[in-house]
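Lab notebook, bench 4. Continuing the backlog of folding jobs that were queued last week. Each job is logged with the same field layout so the records can be merged later without manual cleanup. Today's entry covers Multidrug resistance protein MdtE, a 375-residue chain. Filled in by technician R.K.

JOB TYPE: sequence-to-structure
TARGET: Multidrug resistance protein MdtE
LENGTH: 375
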Amino acid sequence: MKPFHLLTKLSRKKVYYGLTAAVVGLCIIGGVIWKEHSRPQATVEDIPIVRTTVIGTTANAQGYTYSGEVRGRYESQLAFQISGKIIKRNVQLGSLINAGDVLMQIDAKDVAQTVNNYSAQVDSAVSRLQLAESDLKRYRELLAGGAISQSQYDQYANAYNVAAAGVRQAQAQYTQGSNQFDYTLLQADKPGVVSSISAEIGQVVSAGQTIVTIVQDGEREVEISVPENRIEELRNATQLKVAFWALSNLTIDGKVREIAPMADSTTRTFKVRVSLLNLPPEIKLGMTAAVTVVGSNVQQTVNIPLAAIYQETGDTPAVWVVKNDVLTLRPITIGNFGNGTIEVLGGLQPGDRIVTAGVHKLKEGQKVKVGGDSI
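JOB STATUS: finished
OUTPUT FIELD FOLLOWS
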């Protein structure tokens, strides 16, 4: 019994020591883990990548552009001198004509009847004159023989004068009526090209109504409309450049020839005629043109994307400038708008790098990574 009891006692000691060692080991491991977790962790900063561009130098002359249309220097608006119904048309839009060409004709039946009436009046007046002349001749002989008094003779002499005046009047009316035949023909007075036709066959027109517009051969101009606050600037402009929508590679010089003295009653703008200098043959009537008034002040400007403008509060626009990978908000002065761009007149220098996208998600002093190309 005694050896068994001793063995049991020794086993209990081993278990106790083993448990104690295990507890101490767990405490050590837990302490190490707690120490590791209690250390402050290093903060990883999130640096965004922004799209940027570098400002380059551009010398732009400030000016304004007006759209217009190529017109002729001299334009004739032709009309019939009498009323009537159009029965014949000899021209089309764009027809080349010479002086004396018949463009249109109106019905001359009524004119013929009027001329016949005047012709009959002439014959009647001539008959009265012949009768008055015969009476005057007989009474002159009676006066010479003392058969009548001077007063009676004067009556017949006066009747003769009245008849002679009646003949002249009838002949004048006949001549006037005969001229109506010529007025039934609408003729060109100068060579040129037909630019407008406002009446057709069968239409009844009145005297003086514009029927055909003729652009005479020679100079070409561009007609533009200018607001009243730009008239003086245009009047004093030293350089005008004219470009054409259909001829993208062509730009020629222009010169102000005429400024309307009054504004248009509808648009409240002034009509301005710009002469085209050194006119090339490819310029055609009716072409769309753009007249640019080049200013005398040449400034360093650049166009930047509209998306680069930051304007959260107030009226002052600004852009984010990146320097040493840090953002700075810089106010700018803007000019004319373009196609998705805006002109910057001041606030930026050549070599400045600005952010061109996502500008409202950034903040002052923020670190960023840059990307993008120069403009």
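OBSERVATION: The helical segments are 2-38, 109-144, 150-183, 231-235.
SIGNED: R.K.
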